[in-house]
Amino acid sequence: MQHLPILPVLLPLVVAIVLLRKREGVDPVRRTISITATSVLVIVSALLVGQVAGGDTLVYRLGNWQAPYGIVLVADRLSAMMVLLTALLALGSVIHASGGEDNQGSNFHGLFNLQLMGINGAFLTGDLFNLFVFFEVLLLASYALLMHGGGKARVQSGLHYVVLNLAGSSLFLIALGVLYGSIGTLNMADMAERVSQLPADRQGLVRAGALLLLVVFGLKSAILPLYFWLPRAYSSAPAPIAALFAIMTKVGIYAIFRVFTLIFGEQAAGLSLLAQPWLWWGGLATLALAMVAILAARDLRMQISYFMLISIGTLLCGLGMEGTASRGAMLFYMLHTTLINGGLFLLADLIADQRGKVGTRIVRSRKFKYATLLSALYMLGAMASAGLPPLSGAVAKAWLMSTATLSEGLWLWPLLLLSGLAGVVAASRAGSTIFWRHSNGERVGEHLSRAKLIGTVVLLSAAPLLVVLAGPVGNYTQATAEQIANTVEYRSAVLGEVTSVTPGASTHAD
Amino acid sequence: MEALYAITTGILTASGVYLTLRGRTFPVVVGLTLLSYAVNLFLFSMGGLTTHGAALVGTSEHYADPLPQALVLTAIVIGFAMTAFAIILAMRSRGDLGSDSVDGSRTDREDPRENKA
C-alpha cells in the first residue's frame, strides 16, 4: 500500500516493455495482456482514489530523497481522480481497439501503455521538470499512435502536431529555465513556498516564466489562438487513439489548474491569480469560435472534435471564474466530457465501418445495418455533449452556470447556452442525414464487431451513470476543489512542516 | 563571458525561430534543431555561470549549481530523440504527400513531379 502512488506509472511501463518485445502482428495473447493490464490499472486507481478520498495527501519520495532535493510523486484528490479517469477512458479505448484497429499498424498495445505511463506520471508528479519529462513521454507515444496505420491525412496532420509540440517543448524548457533562475527550485511545493516571499525585483522574471508556462499548457489544452492543430489531428487519428486523446487536452487543463492555484494562486504575493483573466477571456473566445465551427463541420469526426473544443472552452471558463464552487463544477464537467467525447469518437468509427466508402462524412449514403442501435447510441452521446437533460451534460452545465457570479454569468450563460444550441442543431442535422437519408437499395455494412461495441458502450454509459451517481461524485469534486484551494495542506504534506524559508540549492543567487 | 553567452543564445534562437517559420520541412527541422541547441544553452546557464568550480558541494567554497547540468543532460537526450523522429517524419511526408511543403500542398513550383505533369 505504501507504493500505491507509483503503481499507475510503473504498471503501464512494465506492460509496455513486455508488449514491445515482438513488433509485428497482434495475437489474442497480447490483446488479453493489454486489456487485463488496463483493467488492473482501473482497480489500482480506484484504490488510490479510496485512499485519498478522506482528504489525505499521499507523498511518494523516489529513492527516499527528501522533498526539495529529490523528485516526489504526490497523490491528492485531484491527481487520483484524473488517474482513475484516464484508466476508465483507456479501458474503453483498448477494448474497442481489440476489435481490429490495433492490427492496422505495428506496436499498438505497447505504445498505448507507454502513453498511459506518460499521462499518469504527468498527473502524479510533484516536480515541474519531471512534469516536462512525462509530457515528453506521452507526446512521443502520441506521435507514433497518431500515425498508427498510416495514410496521407494522418501524416499531414501528424507533421503539424509534431512540429507544434516540439516548439512547445522548447518553450516549456525556456519557462523552466526562467523560473529556476529566479525562484531557485523546481519542486512545486517548494516553488509555492518561495513565490509567496519573492523579492520585488524578481517578480518581472517570474511573471514572464509563469505566463510562458501558460502558453505551453494552453497549447496542450487547445485554448483559442493555439487550437488550430486539434480538429485535424483528432479527426484523422485512429478511433481508439482519438478517444484516448480526449484526456490529453485535459492534461493541459490539469497542469494549468495545478500550477496556477498551487504556485501562482492567491497566496503568491504580487503574482496572485495572474492567469485568471487570460483563462476567462481565452475560454470564452474558444467557446464562441468552436460554437460557430461546429455548425460548419461536414464530417462526423470533425464535429466531435469541435464538441471537444466547446468543452475545453467551458473548462477554461470554469478555471477563470472566481471561487472554489465553480472549480468543483468544472471538475465534474471534466469527468463527463472526457468520457462522452471519447465514446463519441469510438462510435464514429463504428458508424464509419458500416457506411463503407462514405465513412463519417455527413452526406446521403446507402442503407446500412444496425442503424437503429447506432442511432440510439449517437443520440445518447450527442444529447449528453450538447447538455440536454436528463443526461450528465445538463447536470454539469447547470451546476457550472449556477456558480457564476452576476458579472460572470452575463458572459457565461448566453455563450454556454448558445453553444449547447449549436451542438443540438449540428448533431440533429448530422444524425438525420446519416441515419435517415438513404439512397434506395439493399442494406450494406459489415458484421458489428462485439469488442468495438463494448468499448463504445463502456464510455457512453457514463452519461446516465454520472446522473445517477451525481451526488457522491459531485461531493468528491467539490471536496477536491476545496483541497486544491487550501495550498498549505499540499505544501506541508510534501515539505514536512511549512517553514518560512527553506534552505536549498540557491547558490546562483550570489 | 555573460554577454558573449547571451548573444550566442540569442542568435541561435532567432535563427531557429526564423527557420521554423519557413514553408518547407527541411528548414523547419533545422530550425527546431537550432532552437533546441539554444534552449539547452539557456538551461545550462539558468543557475548562473560559474568558472573554475566543480559541481560538488562540500569540496570547496566555490562550486557550480549541479542541477542545471542534470536537467540539460535530460533535455539534450529528449531533444535528440525528437529531432531524429522529426527527420523521419519529414521524409515520410515527402514520400506520402509528394511534396516537402509543411501543409502538403502540391502546387509547389519547385516540386519535380509538377514539372513532369
Automatic annotation (TrEMBL), chain A:
Q: Which residues form the NADH:quinone oxidoreductase/Mrp antiporter transmembrane domain?
A: 126-417
Q: Respond yes or no to whether keyword Cell membrane is given for this record.
A: yes
Compartments where located? Cell membrane; Membrane
| Keywords on record | Cell membrane, Membrane, Transmembrane, Transmembrane helix
Any idea which GO molecular function terms this record carries? NADH dehydrogenase (ubiquinone) activity
Q: Which family does it belong to?
A: Belongs to the CPA3 antiporters (TC 2.A.63) subunit D family.
Could you identify this protein by its name?
A: Multisubunit potassium/proton antiporter, PhaD subunit
Q: Which organism is it from?
A: Kushneria avicenniae
TrEMBL record, chain B:
The answer on whether this UniProt entry bears the keyword Magnesium reads: no
Q: Which GO terms describe its cellular component?
A: plasma membrane
Its record classes its membrane topology as: Multi-pass membrane protein
Spans through the membrane: 6-21, 28-50, 70-91
Q: Where does it localize?
A: Cell membrane
Q: What coarse category fits the chief subcellular location reported for this protein?
A: membrane
Q: Name one Pfam family in it.
A: Oxidored_q2
Note down the stretches annotated as region Disordered. Answer: 95-117
- Give the superkingdom in one word: Bacteria
Keywords annotated in UniProt: Cell membrane, Membrane, Transmembrane, Transmembrane helix
Write down the InterPro entries for this protein, in alphabetical order: CPA3_antiporter_subunitC, NUOK/Mnh_C1-like
Is Transmembrane helix tagged as a keyword? yes
Tell me which PANTHER family the record gives. ANTIPORTER SUBUNIT MNHC2-RELATED (PTHR34583:SF2)
Which family is this sequence assigned to?
Belongs to the CPA3 antiporters (TC 2.A.63) subunit C family.
Protein's name according to its UniProt entry: Multisubunit potassium/proton antiporter, PhaC subunit
Ranked from the top, the taxonomy reads:
Bacteria, Pseudomonadati, Pseudomonadota, Gammaproteobacteria, Oceanospirillales
